[in-house]
Description:
Oligomer: single chain
Helix content: 10-25%
Shape: globular
Largest sheet: 7 strands, mixed
Distance between the termini: 31 Å
Number of strands: 7
Amino acid sequence: MSVRTPDPNPGWLNEADLHEARRRLPMVYVEAIPVRQDSLGYVTEVGLLYTADDDGRFYRTVVSGRVLYRETIRAALLRHIEKDLGSLCLPQLPPSPTPFTVAEYFPYPSETGLVDDRQHAVSLAYVVPVSGECQPRQDALELSWLSPDQVLSDDVQGEFVGGRGQLVRQALAHIGFTG
């Protein structure tokens, strides 16, 4: 299963070196749950990418990607948001980007409930309001804007892979949505 976004500028490692590094080191990622807010700042919609894996199975996911060598967390977050949602999405990054959680993915089922078949990954996860026009990344079928209640429904939660539904539930709890 691949959750990787094609990247025209893959950064600091070629595919063979990246594969070898993933076997030996935890990789650092950022993940963003895009949201739309009302005039009082309450979250009204959550943006989820809908995509398919190499085996043709459909699933929901969030914005995510590696932090490159010599790249700040803020720059990585902005780069992946714009890559996955388009350059006109107008993300509102906070002055001090503090994640709502640090998620740890393992290449096998573990106590975290988060799985990435490729690697051990440590991910800084953020809720990011966006106010512009969003277009899904190249490998995504669509970007769905769902209410928090819809996101927490059993049907939608069942469409996540690797435990990302749990991550989105944590994000909603962090912003005070209890459903």
